[in-house]
Task: inverse folding
């Protein structure tokens, strides 16, 4: 007897998304892992930066495990989560309310929401951020629930302390669907970005949005190559003559050779632009004053590329040759 196409369809192997949907028929909450990431940044009165307010991305472990990083994380004893505690006989996952000093190494992350500067006195109650009583996102949450049959349903709760909540949420949605929205750089956001953020806030039909730089950092760290390439292309699309000096000499680009070299290329292409020359004069002054210690490699790359494009005229005397090398077309000095 021939098998109908509908029967063949129901007998087919399920995709990770379909497996999750199947599990949703049996469990009251089939999203069995809560990934926490910090969402806010504030400058305290002494000038230091605080990264705080962890929020959860409630996810499906079965789908996350299709990615090598999350597979290792979810099967390694949850080394990135805090030690468990117990309250009223239930297992609790303690999520630190703010990042430890130097734990979040990208303080200019635009995916962190800016909070008004915090005035804190050493030893005061303001020194440690905590959620208000009854807040939706508590820092200590039961890690064990019950399924519909009364069996324990363990929900893993893990803190990822050096990734912004907005970036993490967009990453998880991408792993589900292959879709995400990249915002423009914060310095050049326009009506399109405002519309995306507004639609997102109203639960509109748009994929979660994030900074391409923040996503590149996450994808590079987690080894998600396809996502890293998407973020890379979005970063390049955002580089213009009006922002290339600020971007190229920022602390972000020196971390990644491929991005730094491309930024140098864009900077060189726009080198004769008046705005670029003005910005370079100011920025190179800051480099000379030691304000941008990470910028030496980029400056060397720029000098090398400019020499290749426009070699200095070599003259007879040694001093003249040195002077020609230093000033060959860097008239910004």
Result:
């Amino acid at each position: 007897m021939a098998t109908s196409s509908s029967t063949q369809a129901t007998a087919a192997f399920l995709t990770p998304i379909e497996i999750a949907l199947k599990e949703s028929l049996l469990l009251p909450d089939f999203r069995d892992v809560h990934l926490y990431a910090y969402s806010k940044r504030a400058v305290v009165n002494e000038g230091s930066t605080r990264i705080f307010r962890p929020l959860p991305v409630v996810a499906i472990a079965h789908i996350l495990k299709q990615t090598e990083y999350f597979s290792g994380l979810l099967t390694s004893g949850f080394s990135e989560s805090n030690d468990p505690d117990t309250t009223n006989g239930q297992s609790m996952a303690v999520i630190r309310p703010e990042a430890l000093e130097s734990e979040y190494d990208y303080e200019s992350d635009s995916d962190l929401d800016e909070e008004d500067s915090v005035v804190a006195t050493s030893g005061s109650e303001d020194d440690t951020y905590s959620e208000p009583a009854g807040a939706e996102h508590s820092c200590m949450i039961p890690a064990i629930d019950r399924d519909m049959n009364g069996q324990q349903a363990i929900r893993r709760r893990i803190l990822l302390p050096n990734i912004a909540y907005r970036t993490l949420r967009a990453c998880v949605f991408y792993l589900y669907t292959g879709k995400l929205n990249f915002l423009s750089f914060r310095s050049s956001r326009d009506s399109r970005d405002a519309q995306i953020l507004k639609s997102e806030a109203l639960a509109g039909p748009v994929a979660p949005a994030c900074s391409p730089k923040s996503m590149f950092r996450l994808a590079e760290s987690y080894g998600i190559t396809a996502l890293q390439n998407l973020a890379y292309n979005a970063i390049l699309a955002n580089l213009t003559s009006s922002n290339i000096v600020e971007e190229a000499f920022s602390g972000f680009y020196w971390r990644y050779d491929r991005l730094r070299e491309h930024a140098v290329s864009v900077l060189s292409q726009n080198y004769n632009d008046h705005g670029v020359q003005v910005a370079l004069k100011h920025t190179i002054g800051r480099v000379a004053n030691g304000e941008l210690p990470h910028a030496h490699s980029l400056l060397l790359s720029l000098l090398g590329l400019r020499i290749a494009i426009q070699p200095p005229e070599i003259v007879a005397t040694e001093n003249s040759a040195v002077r020609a090398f230093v000033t060959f077309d860097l008239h910004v000095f």
About this structure: Residues 5-9, 78-92, 121-144, 314-333 have pLDDT under 50 and may be disordered. The longest strand covers residues 33-43. The chain has 13 helices and eleven strands. Residues 274-288 form the longest helix (15 residues).
